């Protein structure tokens, strides 16, 4: 929104808000939908409408028979991505860079990678000028690039449309629909990252765009003197469990499912949706009083009305619902989020434990094994399944995968905040030297560690999530908080991806394909001893001591017969003894200690047989050597008596 439009907002705001409040009060007996319609009509008449769009009876879109794909969640491989950042870089050669149509142009890349679900960072209309200021470090301007500052929950972001504001912005709706339709054609589900924990209006000193003018005390958590509770860390907190607000949220989500055909949602700072609303009491929430049921504003609820309504809604209960199960107010609910056996969680504990183990920190072998099994320590007791855990090593906030193995410390000077922003505890390891300028041996170790992380993600029970650009090793220069950069820092660099096509991208593509092929790597139930057996350097003797940096296991698989997977996070190599399987032999598939293309011995690799023969003397003795900081996968094949 330009400065002139903002000035119009501020100039007319006072008179308009008086009119809005008057009409709102007089229409209290009307339906919520009718009140909202009148409200937006007055906003338009006053000339205060934020650029937004909504379908009319004249709008037509040919869905070509499309509907939601309804994949079992255990089969998903999720790709977190930013619409603009995906194709805005000049190397994308997209006809419509930085738009929904640009993403459509590159969907085949995701298909090649083995992705069957994309998670779009915020695509609701948001205030991209929230952080607008000159950045003297880079000589450009800071903007709200990520999009966690919603203005209109019923509108797709206009700037992501190649049509812009043409046709009053309504063309953006059809472009978003086109993205969903074309993704579905390729077998890719579409999830939306939605922000119902706060809005773009800020605190009591912030903008007044919509909710503040309608009823400040209804839509936001307020203290008695009008101050804003700030559980979001962004100035205000949406009053999610107020009856009016929760109905608004349900209507919004239903709209995106029924009208836009999205397959589900990831809820940013979802723990806020479990907090009690302002003036919480039973009469306010349920319509009848209960003695002694008065709670402090923001108290966590064991059965939040909003979550219960969503979980039992005839439309929403059949789509994916994923919670970021924490907030900025200190509430951390990973493993304990109210779920009704439907909700999944971004498993932040998986991220932290896997990072610690892979880099060789003592004391994490047992916790790492839990992560490989889908975190039953978090989810089994509550009756949930492995697929309720969304496993990830990296996401939009924090280090990229390449930076995770390149930097010990954050390097956020480009944000213009003297490196004071961003997380200080990243559980990263630079493999011996800080930054990209490093020795050949350090760079080799970094590539090995990247392969280790990706392999771990693909062989863990639960749902793996990959962050955009990690498949080719995108770097942000050690910046772990790139919220404000609409530039190369956040852009997918397609030329770098092409350079790595025979290296890390190939490894990622083949590992994802391997996961899809294996029946045992996407289980509906937590693995038991009937299917899984733990090993150490010798079969059946796992080492769970605090100094152990070795974890290995076998999985019975209906497709591959049996799979042997081992992680050596020690600085020392080891030769392991494989389990004996009469009439079968172990065949190496993956060894992250090997350079490309021998890190993954795919069936179409010309030198595959030669590579296997180099280890035949080990395999014939039921042994296998594993380098330091390496992981392996072997599969079981019947012995050919005629060989």
UniProtKB/TrEMBL annotation:
One of its GO terms (biological process) is carbohydrate metabolic process. It is found in: Plastid, Chloroplast. GO terms for molecular function: isoamylase activity. It catalyses: Hydrolysis of (1->6)-alpha-D-glucosidic branch linkages in glycogen, amylopectin and their beta-limit dextrins. Signal peptide: none annotated. Its EC number is 3.2.1.68. Keywords: Chloroplast, Hydrolase, Plastid, Transit peptide. It comes from the Eukaryota. Belongs to the glycosyl hydrolase 13 family. This is isoamylase. It comes from Salix purpurea. The lineage of its organism: Eukaryota, Viridiplantae, Streptophyta, Embryophyta, Tracheophyta.
């Amino acid at each position: 929104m330009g400065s002139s439009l903002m000035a119009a907002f501020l100039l007319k705001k006072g008179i308009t808000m008086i009119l809005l409040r008057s009409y709102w009060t007089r229409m209290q007996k009307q339906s919520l939908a009718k009140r909202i319609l009148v409200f937006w009509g007055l906003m338009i008449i006053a000339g205060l409408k934020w650029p937004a769009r909504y379908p009319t009876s004249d709008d037509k879109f040919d869905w070509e028979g499309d509907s939601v794909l309804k994949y079992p969640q255990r089969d998903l491989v999720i790709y977190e991505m930013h619409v603009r950042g995906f194709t805005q870089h000049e190397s994308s050669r997209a006809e419509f860079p930085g738009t929904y149509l640009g993403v459509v142009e590159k969907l085949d890349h995701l298909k090649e990678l083995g992705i069957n679900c994309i998670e779009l960072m915020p695509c609701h209309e948001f205030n991209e000028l929230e952080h607008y200021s000159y950045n003297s470090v880079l000589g450009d301007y800071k903007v709200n690039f990520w999009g966690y500052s919603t203005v209109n929950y019923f509108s797709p972001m206009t700037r992501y449309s190649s049509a812009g504001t043409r046709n009053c912005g309504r063309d953006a709706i059809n472009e978003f629909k086109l993205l969903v339709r074309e993704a579905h054609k390729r077998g890719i589900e579409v999830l939306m990252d939605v922000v119902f924990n706060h809005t773009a209006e800020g605190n009591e000193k912030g903008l007044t765009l919509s909710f503040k003018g309608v009823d400040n005390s209804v839509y936001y958590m307020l203290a008695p003197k009008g101050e804003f509770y700030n559980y979001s860390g962004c100035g205000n907190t949406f009053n999610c469990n107020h009856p009016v607000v929760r109905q608004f949220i349900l209507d919004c989500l239903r709209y995106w499912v029924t009208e836009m055909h999205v397959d589900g949602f990831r809820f940013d700072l979802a723990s806020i949706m479990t907090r009690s609303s302002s003036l919480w009491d039973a009469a306010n929430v349920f319509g009848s009083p209960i003695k002694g049921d008065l709670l402090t504003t923001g108290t966590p609820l064991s059965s939040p009305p909003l979550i219960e309504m969503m979980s039992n809604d005839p439309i929403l209960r059949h789509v994916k619902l994923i919670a970021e199960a924490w907030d900025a107010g200190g509430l951390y609910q990973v493993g304990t989020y109210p779920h009704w056996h439907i909700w999944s969680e971004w498993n932040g504990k998986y991220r932290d434990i896997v990072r610690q183990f892979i880099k060789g920190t003592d004391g994490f072998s047992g916790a790492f094994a839990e992560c490989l099994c889908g975190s039953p320590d978090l989810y089994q007791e509550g009756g949930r399944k492995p697929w309720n855990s969304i496993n990830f090593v990296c996401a939009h906030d924090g280090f990229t995968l390449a930076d995770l193995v390149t930097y010990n410390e954050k390097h956020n000077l480009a944000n213009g905040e003297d490196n004071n922003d961003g997380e200080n505890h990243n559980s990263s390891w630079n493999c011996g030297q800080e930054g990209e300028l490093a020795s050949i041996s350090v760079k080799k170790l970094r590539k090995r560690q990247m392969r280790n992380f990706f392999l771990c993600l693909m062989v863990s029970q639960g749902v793996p999530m990959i962050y955009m650009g990690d498949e080719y090793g995108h770097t942000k220069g050690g910046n772990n908080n790139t919220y404000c950069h609409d530039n190369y820092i956040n852009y997918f660099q397609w030329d770098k991806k092409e350079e790595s096509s025979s290296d890390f991208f190939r490894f990622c593509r083949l590992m994802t394909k391997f996961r899809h092929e294996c029946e045992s790597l996407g289980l509906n139930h937590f693995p038991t001893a009937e299917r899984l057996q733990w090993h150490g350097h010798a079969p059946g003797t796992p080492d769970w001591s605090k100094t152990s940096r070795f974890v290995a296991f076998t999985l019975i698989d209906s497709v591959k017969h049996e799979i042997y997977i081992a992680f050596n996070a020690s600085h020392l190599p080891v030769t392991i003894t494989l389990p004996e399987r009469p009439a079968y032999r172990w065949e190496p598939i993956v060894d992250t200690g090997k350079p490309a293309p021998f890190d993954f011995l795919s069936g179409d690799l010309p030198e595959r047989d030669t590579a296997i023969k180099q280890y035949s003397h080990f395999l014939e003795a039921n042994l296998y050597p594993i380098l330091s900081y390496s992981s392996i996968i072997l599969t079981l094949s019947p012995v050919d008596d005629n060989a």
